[in-house]
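re: ur question from yesterday

yeah so i grabbed the chain u mentioned. its 136 aa long if i counted rite. heres the sequnce exactly as i have it in my notes:
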Amino acid sequence: MKASIFVAVVVLFLFSCKKKNSPVPLSSGLFGSWEVRRVYNGNILPADSIYKPGNGNIVRLNADSTYVKYIQHKYSSKGVYHTRINLMSMLAMNNERLYFDNDTSFNYMVLVNGDLMTLKPLFPDIPTTDYQKIPN
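ran it thru and got these structure tokens back, copy pasting raw so excuse formatting
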């Protein structure tokens, strides 16, 4: 009898736990077209730069978790993107992470404030990129 109660408690515990870093519903604030406005703080090219509106360096994040990238208005790549919520232990706050395709080793911390989005890579040599939301 005690063994069956123990097994029931263990099974209940396993099914009630959430995995850390589990996929979460996508933030609807990410959906849309985003054009590069600024690239900075990286040790790998490109150098720190400010981009004018209409430059055509765009990433389109769709609600179905697909993306399309354009460089100077020309198609560059497409695929699937993912978001995850992580807990930063030092800051004790949740943050949203974004990665493209299945490359979980290279991801960005996403900061969205109205029509501005910042993708800050967790790999320090890669530059941070600021985007402005634009009409599709």
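noticed a couple things. Residues 28 and 63 are 7 Å apart (CA to CA). also Residues 2-16 form the longest helix (15 residues).
anyway ttyl
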